[in-house]
Design a protein that fits this description.
70% of the residues lie in helices and 0% in strands. By secondary structure, the protein is an all-alpha fold. The relative contact order is 0.02.
Length: 733
């Protein structure tokens, strides 16, 4: 040592160590004093390194605090692990394993062939796999283990040869493979040893073991019943026989229950390996060819919650692919899933709802769900907030079928859903809630339940506050229901319509919203609601004439009907609303004095390719034709009648029928003073003739082209030509 205490030269090397026991380093411990004490007690530490020792003590105390926290968190898990290993029949707990003794652990896997007793050999193999499993608990060892061909070869060989003999041994090996499967980078190496195929063999064997166990139970019950009958016939002591049978059955049941618990844990690990390997879609397809879905569905008959959650989750993953849908139809999975709704395990209910939602995209599976009585169960789940979102989505899919809509009408679902709608905390309803209510409001019985107990008033109050488009869709369906009610009673006494005045208190809200809103989606539903109103829905002292005049609808519509001003859907609703308003003769007077008719004709030319708009325009013109004030304006100020005459031969049947009804009115009103048809009437008659005789005229044109223009006259009349055309027409199917 030099004068400054530094090492100048090494005279001799001598390896020696001295351990100094340190008490737990609490937060109030004086580490500076402790570092000085350590230097004083150990002659090998130079006094100049006191500060370095103090820094090491600080790190040691921090490590101790972190270790204590993790120890408290894992205490319960360690105790649970000890109990499980005790219940599994293991003699000792897992010993601390080291990679230095890996060869010894491998030797344990080869001990069976050298032992007289298989049971003793299996115990040694189980201990060897337990030690390797302990090595897998350290992530740093996994890469070295999986790249060791000897280790992987030994494990796969033992699993392939011994999986039928010991559940414990198989369980340990599968847990080792599970540790590898948690890392995608190791899946390729696992595929080299065909671990996925071996795992599926284990699962298949365990399933057959349970089936065999059930067969044995049934056979034993049959034999017990035969023994009892024989004892009664021979007047033997039946009571003692029953006691003996009960003792034997209790013993067998206890043994089977223990085996099933071990088997459940083994199957859980096996399927966990498969779901990890199935991240590769190619591997997943290979599994499906080995009846993976049948295996997963058979797990739904078991009672181990973790295994059930894993099996359903795996099925949910598979249900995302269309090609698996047909398989799910044939395995009766719906009845097995329904028994979990509801149950005591919240994660199990959630994952079951997610799988059912994926399957509900198919109509046939939806019918299966309804038949197994899932609807009342789902409605009961709506009362639990944690299940509500997924339950609403599933009910929405089911409500696409009319059978389900009718079934829901006779439950307490509608009042429950109305409470959710009215008290929803945000301005816009949740999509799944709104969509379900929209579907349900197509059913008359459900609509009556919606408007009961001032339900319509609550909906309108919420609409005026939130201006929610989804809520307006629900209200529009209600207006469609009242419109249909009046259509069914058409021609009967108005007194039979019991919903008169239902909309009177709310009409002002619709009218105010129509002037304030600029949202196209909102206007579509709003105009649709107004178009469903009739005179019976308006207030007593009001009429369409007063509404159109006071709210200046015609000027508003003239601007909006300009091409490109609004969406086509808004244009369609405006045309429908104009047809509804034109039912009032005074409104027809306002229309005839405005530019609406000309605007509608321009719209006809611009939107002629849109079938829906064209159909509604014909209907609106039909209503305007019925009023004398607007009839002349429509017939002679535009060419709309000529355009509609051309629609008599339109390819769309609905347009042909609507055009035929309108041209009937034209034939009635377009007459000369002497009663003969006018020019428009003659065009209509010609067009109808061409439509009725279209086949004959086409055949005539074809004949003229075949024989030339000069010889066409001789085929215009005569028996031969008539016979030819008649035969051709009759032979046409």
């Amino acid at each position: 040592m030099d004068e400054n205490g530094r090492v100048s030269s090494i005279l001799e090397r001598n390896s020696e160590s001295k351990r100094i026991k340190i008490k737990p380093l609490s937060t109030d411990k004086n580490l500076s004093q402790l570092a000085q004490d350590i230097v004083d007690k150990c002659k090998y530490i130079h006094p100049s390194r006191v500060e370095e020792i103090e820094q090491l003590l600080i790190k040691l105390r921090k490590s101790q605090i972190d270790s204590d926290n993790s120890g408290r968190d894992g205490a319960d898990n360690r105790q649970k692990s000890k109990n499980e290993s005790k219940n599994d029949g293991q003699d000792d707990e897992y010993l601390s394993a080291s990679m230095d003794y890996l060869d010894e652990y491998l030797d344990m896997l080869y001990q069976v062939s050298g032992r007289d007793s298989d049971d003793e050999g299996l115990k040694i193999q189980i201990k060897g796999t337990s030690m390797i499993l302990s090595l897998c608990r350290n992530v740093m060892n996994l890469e070295q283990l999986i790249q060791n061909n000897t280790v992987m070869g030994a494990l796969t060989r033992v699993l392939q040869e011994e999986y039928k003999k010991s559940v414990e041994l198989t369980f340990n090996i599968l847990r080792i493979f599970l540790a590898f499967s948690n890392f995608t980078e190791m899946h390729g190496l696992m595929a080299n040893y065909r671990i996925g195929l071996l795992t599926m063999k284990v699962i298949e064997y365990e399933i057959k073991r349970v089936e065999h166990m059930e067969i044995e139970n049934k056979e034993r019950c049959r034999m017990n019943e035969a023994d009892i009958v024989r004892a009664k016939e021979n007047f033997e002591d039946v009571k003692s026989l029953l006691e003996n049978i009960k003792k034997k059955e209790d013993k067998i049941e206890k043994k089977n229950k223990k085996l099933l618990l071990k088997q459940d844990k083994l199957l859980f690990v096996a399927f966990y390996i498969l779901i990890n390997l199935a991240e590769d879609i190619t591997v997943e397809k290979k599994m499906l060819k080995k009846n993976l879905i049948d295996m997963l569905v058979s797990m739904l008959d078991r009672n181990y919650s973790e295994l059930l959650i894993l099996a359903i989750n795996f099925n949910k993953k598979l249900s995302c692919f269309e090609e698996n849908k047909e398989k799910f139809k044939s395995v009766d999975i719906i009845n097995k899933l329904c028994k979990f709704l509801p149950c005591s395990s919240q994660p199990l209910v959630n994952i079951a709802l997610r799988l059912l939602f994926n399957l509900s995209f198919d109509k046939f599976i939806r019918e299966q769900m309804v038949k197994c009585g899932i609807v009342p169960k789902l409605i009961s789940l709506l009362k639990t907030p944690s299940f509500r979102s997924r339950t609403l989505k599933l009910l929405y899919h089911l409500s696409a079928d009319d059978t389900c809509k009718s079934m829901i009408a006779y439950t307490d679902a509608v009042p429950l859903l109305m409470g959710m709608v009215i008290n929803f905390p945000q301005n816009n309803l949740a999509k799944e809630l709104a969509a379900l209510m929209i579907n349900l409001s197509h059913n008359p019985r459900n609509v009556e339940l919606i408007i009961a107990n001032r339900g319509l008033n609550h909906l309108m109050d919420r609409l005026s506050e939130t201006r929610d488009c989804s809520l307006l869709k629900i209200i529009r369906n209600i207006t469609q229901w009242t419109f249909n009610q009046q259509q069914q009673l058409q021609g009967q006494s108005e007194a039979q319509y019991k919903w008169r005045g239902l909309w009177s208190p709310h009409l002002k809200i619709f009218l105010e919203l129509s002037n304030d809103s600029e949202n196209n989606d909102f206007l579509i539903e709003l105009y649709g609601c107004l178009a469903n109103f009739t005179a019976n829905d308006l207030p007593v002292n009001s009429s369409w004439y007063k509404i159109v005049r006071d709210y200046n609808f015609l000027n508003q519509f003239s601007k909006m009907l300009v091409p490109g001003m609004v969406q086509n859907d808004v244009v369609l609703e405006i045309v429908m609303l104009l047809g509804c308003m034109a039912a009032d003769p005074k409104v027809c007077e306002l229309i005839s004095t405005s530019n609406i008719i000309t605007t509608l004709y321009q719209l006809w030319k611009e939107k002629g390719d849109d079938v829906e708009i064209k159909l509604q325009l014909i209907h609106t013109f039909y209503i305007l034709f019925q009023c004398e004030v607007s009839r002349a304006e429509v017939m002679y100020s535009t060419r709309i009648v000529v355009e509609i005459i051309d629609c008599l031969n339109h390819k769309n049947a609905a347009i042909r029928n609507a055009a035929d009804e309108l041209t009937e009115l034209v034939l009635e009103y377009d007459r000369l003073n002497n009663g003969d048809l006018g020019q428009l009437g003659k065009q209509i008659r010609k067009k109808r003739y061409e439509g009725f005789n279209m086949i004959w005229l086409k055949a005539l044109d074809g004949l003229s082209n075949n024989y030339g223009g000069d010889n066409s006259d001789e085929y215009e009349t005569g028996d031969r030509s008539t016979t030819y055309f008649t035969n051709d027409y009759d032979s046409d199917p």
